[in-house]
Fold this sequence. Notes:
alpha/beta, 16% strand, binds magnesium ion
Amino acid sequence: MPSNANATRTAAPTTKILVVIPTFDEADNLPALVAELHALAIPGLAVLVVDDNSPDGTGRVADLLVERFPGVVYVQHRPEKQGLGHAYLDGFTRALDMGADFIVQMDADFSHPPTTIPAMLEAIQDFDVVVGSRYTSGGQLDERWSWWRRFLSWWANEVWSRRLLGLQTHDITAGFKCWRRTTLLGIGLERVASNGYAFQVEMTCLTERLGYRILEIPIYFEDRRIGKSKMSVPVKLQGAVDVIRIWWRHRGLEAGSHN
Ligand SMILES: Nc1nc2c(ncn2[C@@H]2O[C@H](COP(=O)(O)OP(=O)(O)OP(=O)(O)O)[C@@H](O)[C@H]2O)c(=O)[nH]1
Ligand SMILES: [Mg+2]
């Protein structure tokens, strides 16, 4: 029988995986999502909720989850709604400080299937970021989406963001990704200026322009199960304008310059 000291010496260090979930009024979704993530039984997987003082009490729900899953669930409370991009930047910074090797980002509303995470973690071994993609071969949108919503999403990705920025990635606005720690450090979070939904576009743009290896794997994007979308018409318009800002801000960025 090996002694405990020997066992400790020979045990492979556990890879740290942090799932960052921004929340605003997701009290009804969060416990079920955390339960599904926990049920995946992935060694080293922890969850970081970034809540913007949600009026529906999501922050308190998150505190209860921290008590229920000590060392597995963490919460970052922010004083007020400060936008999705800032929430992710805060969450990523904390995840890096916590020593995460891989950082998964996902919405709280079940549009991003937790069951895809094992495949992402396998694929990230050979890539710098893995994208849960609606628009790669095999990816699907919820059948309940109207033709108008499908058209807008296609236009925002394929026509507006992809053509304007000259990118190859198909799901440029995807919010479901698995990052290698070194990719986020190499991009440099201080370089990211977009706050709203354009945050996803700017991250994709920087990742591609800097020459990181991106893999899109197909997902079925289900409509949110419970709660209200924060995606209003002004938010969509702001996102479209922000893409022009991204194009201007990063116009001089050379491909492959992270090496
Ligand atoms: N912390 C924080 N989270 C946010 C903010 N805005 C949105 N979120 C969260 O970001 C995720 C995506 O927001 P959604 O409202 O689902 O937006 P969406 O998925 O683009 O739109 P739908 O398809 O309509 O659901 C969800 O988990 C939200 O709770 C914000 O300002 N702060
Ligand atoms: Mg959603």
